[in-house]
Structure formats: C-alpha cells, structure tokens
Automatic annotation (TrEMBL):
It holds the Pfam family Peptidase_S8. The keyword Methyltransferase does not apply. PANTHER family: CEREVISIN-RELATED, PEPTIDASE S8. Keywords: Hydrolase, Protease, Serine protease. The active site is at D154, H185, S333. Signal peptide: none annotated. This is S8 family serine peptidase. Belongs to the peptidase S8 family. It comes from Massilia aquatica. Residues 145-363 form the Peptidase S8/S53 domain. The keyword Cytoplasm does not apply. SUPFAM superfamilies: Subtilisin-like (SSF52743). It comes from the Bacteria.
Length: 398
C-alpha cells in the first residue's frame, strides 16, 4: 500500500521494521521516459502513477527471489528511478545479492547502504579532558559502545536533554514517595557516559552509542547533595540484573552493606562490569569501590590509593545538566562515569571477556589509562598513536 504525500507530490511506502542486525541495500528501478508514461500529464504528482504499481510488483518479485524484505520505496525523478530500501536475509554473504541484482535486466543498479558523518564536533568536546587524554576521536574508529546497556544507578536523569534524547532504554524510579525527577548528579553522570556525539550541541560521551538505564535510586537534597540508601540501591541493582545490564555505574560511596554486596557478587559472577567511585576520605576507598570485583575509580587529580584503583578524568569536566543546560563538574563520581563509558567500549569489542581479563587488558600509564593502547591490545589493530606497552601489574586489595 502506498503512503501518498499529495501536498508535496511525493510518495513513500509504509516501512516495516528490519531485524536489528539486518544489512540493508538500495535497489533502483528505472522509470520510463516521460513521453512514454501514461501519467505524464500529472507532472510531479505521483498519486495517479499506474507505472509505480508495476515497479512495486517488480520490487516484490526481486525481494522474493533473493530473500529480501522491502522496507520502503521512494521515487527519485531527478535520477529517473524508484529507489527501494531492502533488508538482506540473515547470513547473506556481503555483496553477493547486490552483485546479482546489478546483473538483473529489471534493475538499474543496486548498492549497499553506506554511512556518512558530519565533519564537526560538539562545542564543548575540545575542552573535555578525555577527548585529548583518551584520544576519543581515534578510539571511536574501533568502537563507540554500540548497543551496550549501561545502568546508571543514581539520581534522576533528564532523559529529554538535548545530549541524552533517545539514549535511555529504561527509566525507573526506586525512591518511594517521590516522583521521578531530573537531577544534577544523575544527569551529569549519564552525560559523561553516553552523551550524543556529532549532534552539534554540548558534549560527547565516552560511549555515545551505548544505551542507558536511568535508574533513580538516589535523590537530591537541599544544598545539592545526593543521597541513597540500601533499599533503593538494592532495588535498582536487582532491576539492572534482571534486565540485562552489561555495565553498572555506582558513582556513590558509603559503609559496607551486605545486601548490596550480595547483589554485586551476583553481577560479578555474571560478568557484569560494576564500576564504583572512590571516596578519597576513606582509607580503603569506601564501599562499593573497595568490594572485590568492582572497578574502583579515583579522579586523576587526586591521590591513588593503590595500583588496583583506576584513574580517570575527574576535574573540570563539562557535562549535561538539568534544564537542557551544561555545566562543569569535578569528583570521582564523574571519573567512574568515564570508566563506565570505557567499559561499554570494551564490551562492544570483546563482550565475552571475564572480569580478570578485562582488568588485565587495561593499559596503564603515569596518571591514568591509555585507552588507545587498551583498544589496540584487544583488537590487534592500531587505531591511533601506538606505543610499546607492557602488561599492567595487578595488585589485589587485602
């Protein structure tokens, strides 16, 4: 059935959804010369184009023959073709169907769908410490955290923020007696992890193609501080585990807690990357950062407790803020968010790595992490400035 745009003289076909991993191609069917067309008197108006129905039947026949799914069609009079977007069947050999279609007399030409990127960065990207320190532009040639699910267990995230719109797969509130609210800490942490890249505003997340769970287990109090408790956090961690989170960000600290320990142990047993912010005022870094299996993170501007603690940017970090704004933040909460973004990138590259393998793959250098070298170690391909690295020495917490 055709979806007609009478006011513009254009016609588009209803577009079914393609399977998530389906490779897509374009198939061009030639339009007859205008003086041969029975509907030529109608000019650019395709409402009465009987020939279009014939081309649709040709497209359907081609789809049946090659196992394709027609997603949509669009007339392109400037090229004298009808263009059909089709999804290839699972397991199809790359390029084979396009080659076969190109030899078919019914087809003007066929091609794969290519991806193009605008040649610009978001305004605050140049002042993001990780942009330079972690060579994010180069790292993204290898991975962007695509489809990795990151649970942000924190205060509320402004899900319609210009840098976060469309990034949140789940939004849940685990704080009893309060409605879900967009709050400073959760929005800032989410921005560091997965703010949109190349949208022309604000910042760019470490893993801009990751998917977020905005799980509100904390709340903002007078003065801007953020508070949580064992129950709200436990409900949120449980939800994250039940809904397939691959990374859990805990930018918080407090006393050791059995319920949370048990949940974190389950997460670690499943290979979930749990990231915790170090409390600089605590001798052991505080909980959950001190718990075995958790990736403890401190700001690279502070002191490093031991070799087990990862260092990441944590001072003067631009990030998203409620009210469709941006602001500068500091603290190990945002360092942990950087590492959660990094974990999404590494999970895209090597989702099957065990937690010890993830830790041993991280390349350390004075002052922090060499993310480019880490990506090179995992992929065997140099995507940026490559240096000779030695495996980091891992020291376990007592």
């Amino acid at each position: 059935m055709l979806l007609l745009a009478a006011l513009t003289g254009r016609a588009q076909e209803a577009a079914p959804q393609a399977p998530p991993e389906a490779r897509q191609i374009l198939v061009m069917l030639h339009l007859p010369a205008p003086h041969f067309r029975p509907d030529a008197a109608y000019g650019a108006n395709y409402r009465d184009d009987a020939g279009r129905l014939a081309r649709r039947r040709i497209a359907e026949a081609l789809a049946r023959e090659h196992g394709l799914t027609i997603l949509e069609g669009w007339p392109m009079p400037a090229l004298n073709v009808d263009c059909y977007r089709m999804a290839e069947p699972p397991g199809a050999e790359p390029g084979k169907i396009v080659e076969a279609l190109s030899r078919d007399a019914r087809v003007d030409w066929a091609q794969s769908i290519n991806t193009f990127s605008a040649q610009a960065s978001d305004p605050l990207y140049p002042v993001q410490p990780a942009a330079l320190q972690w060579q994010l532009g180069e790292v993204r040639k290898a991975a962007t955290g695509r489809k990795v699910l990151v649970a942000v267990i924190d205060s509320g995230v402004e899900t319609d923020h210009p840098d976060l719109a469309g990034q949140v797969a789940f939004q849940e509130n685990f704080v009893d007696g309060q409605a879900y609210a967009a709050e400073t800490h959760g929005t800032g942490v989410a921005g560091v992890i997965a703010a949109l890249a190349g949208n022309g505003v604000g910042i760019e997340g470490v893993a801009p193609d990751a998917r977020l769970m905005a799980l509100r287990a904390c709340w903002q109090v007078a003065g801007g501080a953020t508070r949580c408790n064992s129950f709200t956090l436990a409900k949120a961690i449980n939800f994250a585990l039940m809904h397939g989170a691959q990374v859990i960000n805990l930018s918080l600290s407090g006393p050791a807690d059995r319920l949370l320990r048990e949940l974190i142990d389950v997460a670690c047993a499943r290979g979930v990357r749990v990231v915790g912010a170090v409390d600089a005022a605590s001798a052991d870094g505080g909980f959950p950062a001190s718990h075995p299996g958790v990736f403890a993170v401190a700001a690279d501007s502070g002191r490093q407790l031991n070799a087990q603690v990862l260092m990441a940017p944590g001072r003067d970090i631009p990030t998203a803020a409620p009210g469709a704004r941006w602001g500068m933040v500091s603290g190990s909460s945002y360092s942990a968010a950087h590492i959660s973004g990094m974990m999404a990138v590494l999970s895209e590259l090597r989702p099957g790595l065990t937690l010890p393998q993830v830790r041993s793959s991280i390349v350390l250098q004075p002052g922090g992490i060499n993310l480019c070298a880490t990506v090179t170690r995992l992929t065997g391909k140099c995507t940026c400035v490559c240096v000779e690295v030695t495996p980091p020495k891992i020291v376990r917490l007592p």
